[in-house]
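hey so u asked for the seq, here:
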Amino acid sequence: MTRRIYFLALLILTLSVFACSNSKPTQEKEKKESLQERWSVEKAQQWGEKQPWLRGANFNPSTAINQLETWQAESFDPETIDKELGWAEDIGLNCMRVYLHHLAWKVDKDGFKKRMSKYLEIADSHSVKTIFVFFDDCWNATYQAGKQPDPKPGVHNSGWVRDPGTLLDEKPELMTSLETYVKDVLTNFKDDERIVMWDLYNEPGNNKLGNKSMPLLKNVFEWAWEVRPSQPLSVGVWNHGLSDLNKFQLENSDIITYHNYEGPEKHQAAIDSLKQLGRPMVCTEYMARRNNSLFTNIMPILARENVGAINWGLVDGKSNTKYAWDEPISDGSEPELWFHEIFRKDGTPYKQEEVDLIKSLTQGK
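ran it, structure tokens below
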């Protein structure tokens, strides 16, 4: 999903995390312990021991161009969700990462939560757990409720929208509404066993926002701690250049999540570095065929290391993520090599050998 390739700076970043953590004043440490904000390493490990190997995809139904089209009442599509999660179940996937959007909640708070419940009911019927994502700094900065735009032919994620995007700059008071949104959703689902974890913020600092994303990043952790759901909280690291954001994310996440769209050597190096933190790990984005991040060379590593494996994309659809980030095909014709996705719209695999591999890795797990 990101335009920038993530590669963690090995132990340098890890050591800086420990150094920063150990330098905090005693008073602040005591405050954190008394509030029971971040899980201890022991609690995180206990959670990890109870989980199966998590493997799945970033999912929005093929009939939705973005998060709003997924969740608005007029376009919510349980039939397609049921069908496509059935295909996921058939090849052994057991976890989907699904984006929310505060505007869909704002327009219809009760209906939004009912649709979340319906989604969870469908996913659970296919033995699929869910990772919900709150905020996002990727792609289009502005958005509106109602009918969403049609896809631009051959353009990757042409209709995907940020949350909250530039609206937070125009209306700083929106922060109060975002707090209500996060707490409302978390309170409603804080003990729902169908939700395996909460991803509080996707790729903070993307689109050259950098540390401008820090206030919302800090706030969403604070809001989530006030509710303190039974599921773990995390924000994935994705760009080694965002050192301040990376430190904060790694210091405050219950479990470690990350994105990596590179080949096996660099991906393994990232795993080796992050393992030093001693917490369960989930790769919440990988698999971009053009970049040599493949099911065939990355998923076996994740299985061996017991790192959750959540690739980008399940079914080819309105998001157009079979096209590469920066290589549009203006006539909308089939790319020579799909960038993301596992299935075509009719449920047949893009590459049968990939599906065979996935089945072999997930069988019995």
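The chain has one domain: 54-362. Strands lie at 55-58, 95-99, 129-136, 195-202, 233-234, 256-259, 281-285, 308-312.
lmk if thats what u needed
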